């Protein structure tokens, strides 16, 4: 009887302890932009499987995230952490909406290995406000079957923009509505992602970092636009490209009728899933001379709003998402490149050299650091997209560049 009482008391104590532990667990609220939600959920699920404090994600439409975070920060109505388009970090850091995590990140050995583009874009006045979270990066995509049909080496990617032009001629000559090159001519974001790396690879600087800086400097801007204008004039690009606002950014390549285009690392898993018979290659986006290459580093950063109610837990999650476990089991296992480029050499990528190439692009890529990015680039009437359209479709390359330079400089001065 005494033993039974002791056992019962022990069981009650254990039950009480479990209830107490459960009561102490906290839900960590996270806002995630829609286009990064799938990748983020892999990490969230992995965290939740081994932690009492659960991350609860709320998906925010991409075009609403900036406004929602800005108004929420001003009102004190924010989540514990937020995952959003890295390009808006400078604006939010300057506004004071994000928590300074400099000491915590500099003490974390995993942070040192994060792609430089993420470290640069998350730093303001020497202080760190975020970390890479769900990476994406631009790469060059080519259809190997069309290359072979056109008499080209299907395993050799074009190494310069001039080679893209020459290969595009041979592919377009196949006829049957086949075209050598594709880009979304009315999509500002698409073009900063896949067209600007050619210019940067050729030595150009695109956007002004601060008031007084020049924009679109270097010969690469004119060289790239001139080459693309020539491809348009020679009808190596389908007419539909001119009006494409991004809705067919990737879908057109999936038809099997496009030889070459810039895209994002997401293309690998998407094509393997949706078009398993399409034989394609992935390469670094080239510049105008052999040996040049670059990439636009995109994706999401993770940061803690200044008014976060559980900043310590959010910081714990950020430290964890940079670990080998999270980077490999949450990202690489799901064909997503890690934000630490050194981890590209892993068991999940060993049979997929295209993913390794994408991860290498992350290590050598850039993200333009500028305020007012939306006005300069992303809006439908931005100087950036007006330059692209005026130069390529209207043929006024010099005028397009000059007008865009003046407009960007004026925006930077605001």
Our count of domains comes out at 2
Would you identify the CATH architecture of the largest domain? 3-Layer(aba) Sandwich
Could you name the CATH homologous superfamily of the largest domain? Periplasmic binding protein-like II
Helix content: 40-55%
Strand content: 5-15%
Largest sheet: 8 strands, mixed
Low-confidence stretches: 1-7, 16-22
Q: Mind telling me the CATH class of the largest domain? A: Alpha Beta
Number of beta-strand segments: 12
The span between the termini is 82 Å
What sort of overall outline do the alpha carbons produce when their principal axes are compared?
globular
Number of helical elements: 19
The residue-averaged pLDDT reads 92
Predict the CATH topology of the largest domain: D-Maltodextrin-Binding Protein, domain 2
Which structural class fits the helix and strand makeup? alpha/beta
Radius of gyration: 24 Å
């Amino acid at each position: 009887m005494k033993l039974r009482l002791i056992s019962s008391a022990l069981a009650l104590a254990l039950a009480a302890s479990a209830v107490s532990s459960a009561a102490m667990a906290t839900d960590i609220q996270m806002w995630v932009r829609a286009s990064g939600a799938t990748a983020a959920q892999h990490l969230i699920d992995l965290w939740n499987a081994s932690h009492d404090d659960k991350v609860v994600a709320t998906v925010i439409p991409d075009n609403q995230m900036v406004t929602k975070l800005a108004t929420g920060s001003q009102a004190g109505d924010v989540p514990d952490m937020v995952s959003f388009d890295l390009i808006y970090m400078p604006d939010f850091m300057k506004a004071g909406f994000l928590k300074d995590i400099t000491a915590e990140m500099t003490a974390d050995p995993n942070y040192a290995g994060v792609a430089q583009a993420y470290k640069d874009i998350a730093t303001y006045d020497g202080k760190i406000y975020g970390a890479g979270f769900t990476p994406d990066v631009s790469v060059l995509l080519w259809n190997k079957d069309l290359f072979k049909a056109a008499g080209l080496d299907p395993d050799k990617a074009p190494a310069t923009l001039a080679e893209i032009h020459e290969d595009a001629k041979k592919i377009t000559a196949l006829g049957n509505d086949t075209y050598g090159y594709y880009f979304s001519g009315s999509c500002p974001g698409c073009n900063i992602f896949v067209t600007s790396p050619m210019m940067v690879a050729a030595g150009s600087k695109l956007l002004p970092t601060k008031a007084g800086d020049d924009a679109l400097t270097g010969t690469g801007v004119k060289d790239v636009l001139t080459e693309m204008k020539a491809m348009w004039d020679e009808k190596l690009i389908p007419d539909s490209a001119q009006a494409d606002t991004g809705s067919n950014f990737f879908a057109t390549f999936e038809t099997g009728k496009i030889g070459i285009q810039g895209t994002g690392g997401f293309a690998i898993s998407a094509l393997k899933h949706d078009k398993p018979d399409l034989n394609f290659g992935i390469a670094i986006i080239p510049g105008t001379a052999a040996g040049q290459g670059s990439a636009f580093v995109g994706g999401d950063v993770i940061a803690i709003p200044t008014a976060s109610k559980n900043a310590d837990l959010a910081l714990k999650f950020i430290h964890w998402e940079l670990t080998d476990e999270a980077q490999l089991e949450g990202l690489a296992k799901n064909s997503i490149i890690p934000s630490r480029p050194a981890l590209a050499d892993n068991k999940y990528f060993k049979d997929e050299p295209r993913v390794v190439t994408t991860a290498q692009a992350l290590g050598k890529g850039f993200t333009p650091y500028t305020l007012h990015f939306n006005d300069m680039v992303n809006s439908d009437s931005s100087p950036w997209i007006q330059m692209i359209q005026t130069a390529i479709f209207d043929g006024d390359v010099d005028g397009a560049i000059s007008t865009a330079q003046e407009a960007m400089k004026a925006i930077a001065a605001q």
